[in-house]
Structures are given as structure tokens and as C-alpha cells.
Amino acid sequence: LSLSLSLLMIKGFIKNKQFKHIYNVFERNYIENQEIGSSFILYYKGEQVVKLNGGYSDNKNKTEFNENTLVNVYSVSKFVTNLCVLYLIENNLIDFNDKICLYWPEFSTNGKENITIEQLLSHQAGLVTLDEPIYQSDIEEHLREIQEKKLSNSEDLNTSFSNRLAEQKPHWNLNKFQAGYHPFMVGFYVAEIVRRVDSLHRTLTELFTQDILPKLNLPHSNNDNNDNPIEFYFAFPKNDPDFDLNRIARLYSVDTATPLPPLHPNSNKFESFLESQKEPKRTYLSVRAFFSFQYSSTRQFSPFKARFLEIPSAVGYTTSNSLSKIFQSIVENYINPKDDYLFSKETLDKAFSVSYNGHDCILNERRTYSKAGFILEPIYPNSFCHSGSGGSLGFGSIEKDKEFSFAYIPNALQKKTNFNKYRLLDAVYYCINQLSDDYQLDNDTIYITKNLQSDQNNNNNIISNL
């Protein structure tokens, strides 16, 4: 599919003219940096102050991208996956320091007997891939076995796939202080821990939907309502006549434009951050970690069918409305704790604590992981985030008197690191740092409806047709 000078529209609002720079960056991502469709929502001090939607969720049919467009946010799903563990910790069912084999005895083989919950979440367990490839049929059979065991009230929670997880040998010496990003595997291990700790032996999807989602949907901002509740799917419901698959954005693989410089002066921090995010050289183990799933001609892994499977580390469909509310809820839980909220400040203090700060042997770059597996960016103190392949980003800041959260979700997946999210992140900090201490929302909201042309001369390939 070739796109050239496509006519695009940006819609949304800004509740204070001091946030206008964010709009400027959002617009220029389309004009200069190959954006096809995206949505961005920012909360500041409990108010939704920016909402921007642009481009198309389906470029061929010119379906407009909006805050309720469903997109796979890939590794951002790890953040939501780890909230399920944090929920168990909040309810005193497990602890970061607990050894995994306490709840999953079969896990203790091959030198894993001392691996803790914290080590797994913070990518220090060395379980970045399995020795043998994972096929789609393996996951399908695993989920079938789980349901069959539930129906028969079996006390044996093991499946063929969970046995493979339990038997896997770590890929590095656990006596060394080392971390390496687990692109796919951490979610599978978390799901098995959740099934064993939860008294009802529920799957990750079931626990999240039944226990966590209702509390995330409590009002966490001054303009929250239940008209647009949070949606997050580790797997789409099968055979649900009310579920509209047409809401799912097509994903486009595009050639990466040259990373652009910051759009304002005095941004040395941002320059150094971009430098740290340059595409690293990959090791053999790194390649194996990122290609844990087997894409063979005889046993094809279908991206369409994957939507109905629970692959918690890499498949998570949500909207910008929902992801922004999830991050806003965590900020609000911390800043203004209440008894009916999902997490206490005490639990979140533990979750935000640094677990690892050093070289990541899979990403081949410096990374800081919290105990809960959140990504911490030292140049942005008191923040937490998670990004996903293709550019999605959920971000929260609990800095006193400047708390904020935002979500950015695109459907143009850059072949290398997507820099559009970092430009928007930088714009958010720039705007917030310019706000005066007596900041007030403007009475007159700036509503935006603007047509523009995006110069997209590179070849863009559809990689997901629904």
C-alpha cells in the first residue's frame, strides 16, 4: 500500500492554551514522521486537559481514528499483567520477596528454586524464551486444558505448556546481578502464578475482568463518568454478537523516518534520552527472545487468531481512553488514596521501588525496572511507564503538585524505535514545566478540527487486516 500526501484530520480539545505545544508536536508527527492514525489523552492534576485524535484506523476505507479505537499496544500489556500480581500483593496473598516455587512447586527445577516474584517481574529471572519454539497450537491446547480442568474441578493445575515453562532452565547465572527483558515469556509465567494463588484458579483475563476492572473504573479524575468505561482485552471474546470487530485498527508497518530533533530549545535531557533509545545491536539470545513464537509455513502463527488467545506479554487491545484512565487511576491511587481504591499507597511505594538499574542483556541498553516490572526513566523522576512495539506508551508521574498521566496509541508501527512517543513525552514535560504555580484551567476550551496533508511517500504495508 503506497500512501502519498494523504488528507488527514485532527480533532480534539485543549483545556488550556499552555498545552498547545502538545498539539503542535502531535500535528507534526503526521506531517513529518509518518503517522497514519493515533490518539493522545493527557490528565493533569485530576483533569483531562488534552484529547487529540488524528488520521485513520483504516487508511483504505478512511475510518477515522478516535479515543475508542481498539489497538494492540503490545508490551504495554505487561503493565496491566503486572497489575494483576500487584492486586494479589495488595490483598496479602503473595509478596514480592516470595519464591515462586512456594505457589508452583514444579517451578523449582533446573536451579530456579530461589527465583522470587520480584525477580520475575523485573526481568531478572533469565527466562526470556523456551528451548523449543512455541507454536500457536501450543497456546490453544494450553487454554483448552485449563478450561477442561476447571470444568472437572481438577486439583491438578498443570498443562503440557505450563510443564514446559516449569522445566525451562534460566539463560544466565542467577547468582549474578543481571537483567534481560522478557518480551513474551514473563506474561505466561505471571498467568500461571495467578492461577495458582487465586482461590478460584482463574485465568489472567478472568481475574482482571472480574476483580480489577471494576475498581479501575471507579472515578479517578474530576471529569470521569461511566459513559466510557475502561476496556482492556488480553484476548477478545469469541462468538460475542455484541462485540464489534470493526473497532479494531488496522496496523501498518512503515519505513522509519529519520528521528527528528526536539521542537523547542533547552532540551538536553531529551537529546540524551533519544541517544539512549537508538536501535541496539542484538545478541543471539536477544533474537531468540523476540522470536519465541515459531512462524513456519507449516504451522503458521496467525495474528488474527492470536487476538482470541491469552498472550499477556505481547497481546493487549485497548483504547487511548482506557489506557489513559488506567494510568490515571494508579496516579490517583497514590496521590489521593481512598479505601475503595484498587491499591494502597503502601503497596504502590513498593511497586515503584527500584529493583534493577543497569545493563539489559536482551535490549543491550541501560534499563531501570521497578519491583513491579514498571519501566522507570531516571531523567524523569517520580515517573513510571511502559511502552510497546510500534510506539504505544502509557506514562504516569507522581511528582508532588505536578502529577499527570497520559496515553498515546498509534497504528503505524515503525520498523525501529518509534520516536513519536518520545517527542510527545518531551512536549508534555515542557508544557507542565512552563505552568505557573497558580495554574488554572481556562474557562474557554480550545476545540480543534483541522485538515492537513501528510507526506507519506514510503511504502506502508498492512500487517493486520482487521
Structure description:
The protein is α+β, with helices and mostly antiparallel strands. Helix content is 30%, strand content 19%. The chain contains 13 helices and 16 strands. The chain has helices spanning 20-32, 76-90, 117-121, 136-151, 160-167, 185-197, 204-216, 268-276, 284-290, 303-306, 320-335, 345-352, 420-434; strands at residues 6-14, 37-44, 47-58, 63-64, 71-72, 232-233, 251-254, 317-318, 354-360, 365-370, 383-387, 393-397, 404-410, 412-414, 446-454, 460-464. The strands form four sheets. Strands 1, 2, 3, 4, 11, 12, 13 and 15 form an eight-stranded antiparallel sheet that branches. A hairpin with a 4-residue loop joins strand 9 and strand 10. Helix 1 (20-32) packs antiparallel against helix 13, helix 2 packs parallel to helix 6 and helix 2 crosses helix 7 (204-216). The chain is globular. Residues 1-5, 256-270, 295-300 and 457-466 have low confidence and may be disordered.
